[in-house]
Amino acid sequence: MKVSEIFRSLQGEGLRMGAPTAFVRLAGCNLRCEWCDTKYAQDGGEEMPLEKVLEMVKALKCRDVCITGGEPLLQKETVPLIYNLLDSGHHVTLETNGTMSLQEMPCEERMLVSMDVKCPSSGMADKCDLANIEYLGPVDQLKFVIADERDYEYAKKVLKERKHNCTVIMIPVGGTNLKWLAEKVLEDKLEARVLPQLHKLIWGDKRGR
Ligand code: SF4
Fold this sequence. Notes:
The protein is 23% helix and 24% strand. The chain is built from 5 helices and 9 strands, in the order βββαβαβββαβαβα. Strands 3-1-2-4-5-6-7-8-9 form a 9-stranded mixed sheet, covered by helices on one side. Strand 8, helix 4 and strand 9 form a beta-alpha-beta unit. It starts with a strand and ends in a 6-residue tail after the last helix. The structure holds iron/sulfur cluster (SF4).
């Protein structure tokens, strides 16, 4: 597999926020979002056999494992990696940018699919395959990163038009300026959780370990 980095930190986003987590960041991405904060993982990476990735994750001693990128589903070994981790008793979060089919994802309580819906400010809104939303179940999350009014209105439209059965999460770009977004969600009575990026509150733009 092409691996950008493997490290231990706290989960900074979404339903598993705060959990000590082994992050497996896979290299390579098919998008180029305006506000991408992991540009270093868009290309490159170190080639590693699946067994080596599993060994490195084991050494980090975390129940939670988050497979992120880049776009993890571009690599064919990602699904076997997920099954191996589930078999070893881990809780697995898969972060995906919504461009790859989620139809074949394992459906179980210890598996959380976190799908991004790219909003207009990312410049990539037309690349997302919104049909994937129907494959998300009650333990999964749909994530919108919101920069401005236009993004917020786009998110509202997607939620209105697409039947969904998962938790909806809205995060302000930058991860910490929550007030405007919180007030919009309350005013519109949206069924969405407004959350910060915990790692940004703790460590700013530097990643904590
Ligand atoms: S999908 Fe993620 S890794 Fe890829 S460019 Fe967008 S923010 Fe960056």
